[in-house]
Each structure stands twice: as structure tokens, then as C-alpha cells.
């Protein structure tokens, strides 16, 4: 029975890992560059709106459930005596939990909450200073969580190849 449950859970783990990596990656390669190219007052208002809208039922599973599903996959693989897959799923869960979810909650979310309290200034120089003070560090931390999420996705792929090799 464990082997029958493992494949759907493993595929869900892959889907969620890919979704959260893609979410963070999109911020790296398009969203923040676009905001940096915009008028700083517009960038501040847009980021405030995006941060307010991200707390939704579509985002929730990828952000919060990825480490849970990865851990379940690790436990199922362990029960099926597929230790290499179990270690890879478990490693992916730990990497994303620490470098994606917890990093976001401890760094990016507080930065977003601080920005949410800002009244967008009418003065373009003041807006530029606020945006520059926010954007550069936020992007650095976002790159970190993108890399960690990418490693978690890679480990999930490794785990799936281990399932294929071990289960025939």
C-alpha cells in the first residue's frame, strides 16, 4: 500500500516544489527588474498591492504545504525501504523549510510589512530613496530563497529518479 501512495505524493511534492521555485524565480528575473525600471512611487504602490494580494488560497499550498508533502514523501519512501529517495525527499523538505519558508517569514515578510506602512511620497526623490533602500536587500534575500527552492526542486527530482530505479 505504501508504494501505491508514494508515487502520487511524490508527484505532488514535485508540483509544489516546482510551483514555489517558479514563483520566487519570476520575482528574480522579471517582477523586480520591472519595478526597478518604473517610477519609484509606482514601484512602491505596486509592491504594496502585490504583497497584500499574495496571501490567498492559490499561493498557500505551494508556500506552506511544500515541506509537509516532501516530508510525507520521505516517510513513505522510508517505509517502502527506498532510503536514497527518502533522504532526497527529506533533504528537499529541510532545504525548503529553512531556506524558503522560514527565510521568507523572518526576512521578506517583515520587509514587506514595513513597506506596507509607507505612505507613497509625492516627492520623487523621497520615493526613490525608499524604493532603493527596500528593493536591493529584498532582491538579495529573494535570490537566496530562489536558490534554496531550486535545490529543493532538484532534490525532489533526484528522489523521483531513485523511485524509478528502485521500483522498476
Spans of at least 5 consecutive residues whose pLDDT stays below 50 are none
Largest sheet: none
Instruction: Bin the helical content.
Output: over 70%
Mean pLDDT: 95
Category by helix and strand content: mainly alpha
- Strand composition percent: under 5%
**Overall 3D shape:** elongated
Q: Can you put this structure into words, describing what you see?
A:
The chain is an all-alpha fold and 168 residues long. It has one domain (2-167). Helix content is 89%, strand content 0%. The chain has five helices and no strands. Helix 2 (40-53) packs across helix 5, helix 3 runs antiparallel to helix 4 (83-116) and helix 4 (83-116) packs antiparallel against helix 5 (124-167). The chain is elongated, with a radius of gyration of 19 Å.
